[in-house]
Write a structure and sequence with these properties.
This protein has 383 residues and is mainly alpha-helical. The chain has helices at 3-20, 25-39, 45-56, 62-105, 112-137, 141-155, 160-172, 180-196, 216-229, 234-248, 254-266, 274-302, 308-314, 316-344, 348-362, 368-382. Among the domains are: 3-138 and 326-382, no CATH class; 141-196.
């Protein structure tokens, strides 16, 4: 297969995912696993899991970084750029249109009915991916123990990075002369010890709000800084942006920031497209482009570490640590899917949509995009 063909395949796949992948990083990862591992066979489940683990260890938008890693594995350095850009562009255009409507009409588009039907499908996609990825990752009783410990830690409020680090260290102890069972115990002990000392420091804004002139270069630097240091969910993104744009600079109101975050959460593709919405509010189409470039540029830089992942796997000690990180990553996905499920499966219809979607995925291998569109249509008609 020629390089041009591979690049066109990558572009088509990630353009489609960028336009239809609702539900946040956990759902995006599940949809990528469905297309890349099962339908196309570009990666094995083990290789896919290694890339998932790697993206969880670096800051930035996890699903975008995973797309970039897949692009490099499939098409080299050109594939890296094509896959990443293709995943970002559709979501950016959708959010920019929403921002235009918001500026023109002063309110968010009405999407409640569509999301009512889409969310149960997303839950089914995540659950089916967790089942399949878990079969590859949970290879021993010790790894099961690490996974359960990681779930308990996340539920208890321990920071995601601590859980991932503890998972890797716990499994690596096996290769330092201990037993894998002891590795799981060490994971629990490490997580408990760190969590007792408190999680991540809360962001505070002590300075009084004083509006400063809006410039494109300062805007780019603010979003590039966020993209370079942020770990965690869209709610962590909200905290970072609030500190800079609301409290320190006074460029946004609280309501504008909340509306921007809502758009990033409910539109397909990366949650970081919140930056596109904010950039449009602050500087029109040019501002949207500047903010989007700033927040996503670090992901392409960090993703240059992707070629190191196969080398890590060849090292017994590093491979063991990566096994632990992979299991902890699945634990994070499991907790997120449970939280999303409680909000999405709210009545008999949504439960039925999720159940039928799960059967369609597991038994009939139906393309997840059609399920997303079907769920949105059902929700629109029923809402």
């Amino acid at each position: 297969m020629t390089g041009t063909t591979r690049l066109s395949e990558l572009a088509w796949l990630f353009l489609r995912l960028g336009a239809t992948a609702f539900g946040g990083p956990a759902a995006h990862i599940a949809m990528m696993e469905h297309d890349v591992v099962r339908r196309r066979g570009w990666l094995t489940r083990a290789q896919f899991l290694d890339y998932v683990g790697a993206t969880n260890l670096i800051p930035g938008p996890n699903s975008t970084e995973l797309a970039i890693h897949i692009g490099h594995a499939r098409g080299g350095w050109p594939g890296l750029l094509v896959a990443g850009a293709s995943f970002i562009i559709p979501a950016t255009l959708i959010v920019a249109i929403a921002a235009w409507a918001y500026v023109r009409y002063g309110t968010l588009p009405e999407v409640g009915g569509v999301l009512y039907g889409v969310k149960p499908v997303v839950i089914a996609i995540i659950a089916e991916a967790l089942w399949r990825l878990g079969q590859s990752a949970l290879k021993t009783r010790g790894l099961w123990g690490v996974g359960l410990a990681a779930v308990a830690a996340v539920v208890a409020g321990v920071h995601e990075l601590i859980v991932l680090a503890a998972g890797g260290m716990g499994v690596a102890l096996f290769h330092a002369g201990g037993r894998l069972k002891r590795g799981a115990s060490a994971t629990i002990a490490l997580v408990a010890g760190v969590s007792s000392g408190g999680g991540a420091a809360a962001l505070t804004g002590a300075a009084a709000v004083t509006a400063t002139p809006i410039g494109l270069w300062p805007m780019f630097l603010i979003f590039a800084k966020v993209g370079a240091v942020l770990f965690g969910s869209g709610y962590v993104l909200l905290a970072f942006l609030r500190a800079d744009l609301v409290e320190r600079l006074g460029w946004l109101t609280e309501q504008q920031l909340l509306d921007a975050t809502a758009i990033g959460q409910v539109t397909p593709g990366p949650v970081f497209t919140t930056a596109t919405f904010i950039g449009y509010l602050l500087g029109g189409p040019v501002g949207a482009g500047v903010a989007t470039a700033g927040i996503f540029l670090p992901a392409f830089v960090f993703a240059l570490s992707g070629p190191l992942v196969p080398r890590l796997r060849r090292s017994p000690a590093a491979g063991a640590a990566l096994d632990g990180v992979n299991v902890a990553s699945l634990a994070l996905m499991a907790v997120v899917s449970w939280q999303l499920g409680r909000a999405a499966l709210i009545d008999p219809l949504t439960i039925a949509i999720a159940g039928l979607s799960l059967v369609a995925l597991a038994r009939y291998k139906l393309n997840s995009t059609w399920l997303i569109l079907g769920g949105g249509l059902v929700g629109f008609l029923a809402f």
